[in-house]
Design a protein that fits this description.
There is one protein chain. By secondary structure, the chain is an alpha+beta fold. The strands form nine sheets. Strands 9, 10, 11, 12, 13, 14, 15 and 16 form an eight-stranded antiparallel beta sheet that branches.
């Protein structure tokens, strides 16, 4: 009988080995003061002549009140567990918040940090170029007639005004990107290059000249240079440096009416190119190649001038542009017509193409090359802004097979575009229209980064973008100047650049491309995450394709068919596989497995046929054993036979590999994969064979058309096994015939697996990733799935077996549905392991960010990309934040997959409870 706060226990008083203590036991109905039978005194001795008394039944009570320490420990454990759970949630949310904070600036565009407006004391003349130093202290305005005006950009203080020492008044002028080099053409047909750049010096503060004039912002000037304080007690001096080079001839003798210039850059061997239009309407191309003597440092320049094919009707001054080195000359008329000359052979330049840059009725109002001279920006009289690439096209109608292709349409202005000013470091550029609107754009991201405050109906005579792209300087025809200090940290990023198809320079069509760096400064970053997501999914798919069947079948075998002793050895061995570091697996895959697979690729592929065939053959041979022998050895011996079948299958694949290649792949799989030999029929047949066998067996299970399977149901022992083996052999033959017929039909319709499913063989490829990552995933899936299968109650198995079901039928239709939630969780956990894997992919996948389902080609996953690129990324830069965006994508994908997996698991678990 149980009472509150105590439990009653009946014992015999003479049971010495169960003697209770006096502190916590009392007889019923006795108080402590009247109790005469102490539990520790033992039974009373009978008097002489008296009979021994009967054993007295005593009921004892034990105090069950919970001690206070237990309550304290319980509350403490509850608090600790609660705090730990909240801390985990807070840590996950903190990681997400940190990732979002690092990624958010990628989509915030630009901002104006400071702005000033003033009027210049000396109104500028008609301008040709504007230059700006990298510290945004000085700006120079160079007019068409050769005068230079230097001002303090933040305040407008005029520092320098002078005329260049030309022998005659220039008749034409042009400049290269940035305005640091200009060329002036003269009426006598000559030209002269002027280098007008900036020099900066760092001086100790004590060397700063005395009596300097103070300027706004803490700067000082001596009338020609600007002095600024910098950290370390030093002073930076910025001043204008001018250099007039020797003149040279650019026409046949007539005056220069228009001129264009291109420069291939410095170095020991540089080339300048000039295109000039003379007063008679003739075009002339000049190349000046300069070589530097490494011993003496002397420069030697060789100049060559040729006449371009004549363009009739060149009345108005056209736009003259040249690509780097002068190999392509662009002559654009104001009505939108463009002529392109191919000057790759300077001895015989040809008119390669004549086309239009704008639709009919729309003229060209502004024209400029972006940095790199591959993107031609066209501003229309209707306010349109679009970009053209020079691309190779079939049926181009040009002499070199290339033509200008309109690739990007940017947001238009509301009026005619008057100025286009490219950036010198990326694909950003300024555009201005006749209403005074001034926009900063980026060509790759196809977005307007900043819209500056408008100077109503202002026509900008001088316009410059700072070398570091952190400032804009503009001067109108009336001398009104505007200065903006801006911040545009990530102009090349947008949702479309990350997730959309972008038409990059030099590419024949829009693509998903990842290429974060290159060897040249005019490189266009390609930051599409789609190839990385594709690579992650590709690696996950092939690794799961290899790991899940092996792990689940192993779990079924260990849980349902293997004896206890063998199970106690095999399961811990499988679990120990999960302890292998992924870097070791990647190292083995890259340096050991990759050369072996490349050398024995035929044998490796043949293993996918011989190993299953030997296991199926062994299963049928096992059925031929007498029942008593099969039951007796249904344990370690059976498992040893399976291992032996596996070894024999691998040995046969190695032995028959070369013959397999000769029969199916013209003697070499690698050459066959390259598409130079044979047809796609052999591989199509091999791919269709397992599908056809599955279809035949599935059809035979519903429609018993196989005579051997029908006879096996009514036979016993050896005959049943023989009929079963004959039935499977007949199904295999039927599957082979079906596969051959289907393969022939597909090939006749033009199907070839080498067009996408497979392709050129690369040593470090997805097949290796499937093996290596599958080896890492198998222990995880096996362990969780086997635990779920072992947790199924035995009464379900017993009920199924008692109804006459076989072990396989019980496993498939009773055990597996009951354990489906655990099996699904095992697959999801394994998938999470594969998605987040880094080192195996880094070392064995080749790190090629391409979108190709070819199993023999490489890939680059998100995790591997972070590991490879992050050490080289500048903190806070675009690449740095893009890599954090990759991490955020992985984080979100893992969260979504785990959420869906949990919902599905709960659904399966609810169904399993009904069993």
């Amino acid at each position: 009988m149980l009472r509150a706060g105590s439990v009653e226990r009946r014992i015999r008083s003479h049971s010495a080995h169960r003697t209770p203590t006096a502190e916590n036991t009392l007889p019923i109905n006795e108080s402590p003061s009247t109790n005469t039978h102490r539990a520790d005194s033992g039974p009373a001795e009978p008097a002489p002549g008296e009979a021994a008394p009967k054993a007295q039944e005593v009921v004892y009570r034990r105090n069950k009140e919970t001690r206070r320490a237990v309550f304290i420990a319980d509350r403490l454990a509850k608090r600790v567990i609660s705090v730990g759970g909240i801390a985990v949630i807070a840590a996950v949310l903190g990681i997400m918040v940190f990732l979002v904070a690092e990624v958010a600036p990628l989509f915030m565009g630009g901002e104006v940090l400071d702005e000033s407006a003033y009027s210049l004391a000396v109104p500028p003349r008609s301008g040709t170029a504007t230059a700006w130093d990298e510290y945004r202290r000085m700006a120079t305005m160079i007019s068409r007639d050769g005068s230079i005006t230097a001002v303090h950009a933040p305040s407008g203080r005029v520092l320098l005004t002078e005329d260049l020492a030309f022998a005659q008044v220039p008749s034409a002028s042009a400049h290269i990107l940035g305005g640091s080099q200009l060329v002036f053409g003269f009426p006598d047909g000559s030209a002269q290059v002027v280098a007008a750049g900036f020099r900066s010096e760092v001086l100790p503060s004590e060397e700063e000249p005395a009596g300097l004039e103070h300027l706004p912002g803490g700067d000082r000037t001596d009338g020609a240079a600007v002095f600024s304080d910098i950290p370390g007690g030093q002073v930076r001096r910025v001043y204008v440096e001018r250099l007039l080079e020797d003149s040279f001839r650019v026409t046949g003798g007539l005056g220069v009416r228009a001129i264009g210039m291109a420069d291939s850059g410095g170095g020991q061997d540089s080339t300048r190119a000039f295109v000039a239009l003379d007063s008679a309407g003739e075009l002339w191309l000049t190349q000046a190649r300069t070589k530097k003597n490494l011993m003496t440092g002397a420069l030697r320049t060789r100049t060559r001038t040729v006449q371009l094919p004549r363009i009739p009707g060149l009345s108005a001054d056209p736009y003259l542009l040249l690509s780097r080195g002068g190999q392509n000359v662009i002559v654009a008329l104001q009505d939108g017509t463009v002529f392109r000359f191919d000057a790759s052979d300077l001895a015989e330049p040809v008119l390669a193409e004549t086309s239009r840059l704008t639709p009919p009725g729309v003229g060209v109002a502004a024209l400029a090359f972006l940095v790199g001279e591959q993107s031609l920006v066209v501003g229309g009289t209707d306010g349109s802004v679009n970009i053209h690439f020079l691309l190779r096209r079939d049926g181009a109608g040009s002499t070199d097979g290339r033509r200008l292709v309109r690739t990007r349409d940017l947001q238009p202005h509301g009026a005619a575009v008057t100025r286009i000013v490219p950036s010198g470091i990326d694909k950003s550029f300024l555009t201005a229209d006749t209403t005074g609107a001034l926009w900063l754009r980026h060509a790759t991201s196809n977005q307007v980064l900043l819209r500056f405050s408008r100077e109503q109906d202002a026509i900008y005579q001088y316009l410059a973008l700072a070398p570091r792209q952190n400032g804009v300087f503009a001067v109108t025809e009336a001398g009104a100047a505007r200065y903006w200090h801006i911040s545009v940290p990530h102009p090349e990023t947008s949702w479309k650049t990350f997730w959309g198809r972008i038409w990059y320079e030099g590419y024949p069509e829009p693509t998903f491309t990842w290429q974060s760096s290159a060897a040249t400064d005019d490189f266009e970053p390609k930051l599409s995450l789609v190839p990385l997501v594709f690579g992650t999914l590709k690696a996950t798919f092939y690794s799961m394709l290899f790991a899940v069947p092996v792990a689940l079948l192993a779990a079924f075998f260990v849980s349902e068919f293997m004896g206890g002793r063998a199970k106690g050895v095999l399961k811990p061995a499988m679990e120990m596989m999960a302890s292998l570091p992924s870097v070791v697996l990647g190292f083995v895959a890259a340096l050991v497995l990759a050369p072996v697979v490349e050398t024995w690729i035929g044998s490796v592929l043949l293993c996918f046929l011989t190993v299953p065939a030997l296991l199926v053959l062994g299963a049928h041979l096992w059925q031929l054993l007498p029942r008593n022998l099969a039951d007796r050895y249904d344990g370690s011996v059976k498992f040893a036979c399976m291992v032996a079948s596996l070894v024999v299958g691998v040995y046969l694949a190695v032995l028959l590999g070369s013959g397999f290649e000769r029969v199916f792949f013209q003697g070499s799989i690698t050459r066959w994969l390259s598409g130079t030999e044979g047809s796609g029929r052999p591989l199509t047949f091999l791919l269709l064979l397992p599908l056809s066998l599955f279809a035949v067996l599935a059809y035979g299970a519903r429609h018993p058309v196989n005579p051997f399977y029908r006879r096996s149901k009514n036979a016993d022992g050896l005959r049943a096994g023989l009929y079963s083996f004959a039935g499977f052999s007949l199904s295999l033959v039927a599957a082979g015939v079906l596969s051959a017929v289907a393969a022939e039909g597909l090939v006749r319709f033009g199907f070839d697996p080498r067009d996408g499913l497979v392709g050129t063989y690369v040593q470090r490829n997805t097949l290796l990733i499937g093996f290596a990552m599958g080896f890492a995933v198998i222990p995880i899936v096996f362990t969780i799935a086997e635990d779920a299968l072992s947790a199924v109650p035995d009464h379900l198995r017993g009920a199924s077996l008692g109804c006459g079901a076989t072990i396989w039928q019980t496993t498939l239709w009773v055990v597996m549905p009951a354990a489906m939630s655990g099996i699904f969780s095992a697959i999801m956990v394994g998938m999470g392991r594969a998605v987040g894997e880094t080192m195996i992919v880094v070392m064995a996948a080749g790190n090629t960010p391409i979108m190709d389902i070819n199993v023999f080609n490489g890939l680059r996953a998100l995790s591997a990309n972070i590991a490879v690129e992050l050490p080289e990324a500048v903190v806070g830069g675009t690449l740095y934040r893009t890599l954090f965006l990759s991490g955020l994508v992985l984080f979100a994908a893992t969260f979504v997959v785990n959420t869906v997996a949990e919902l599905v698991r709960l659904r399966y678990r609810k169904k399993a409870r009904q069993l």
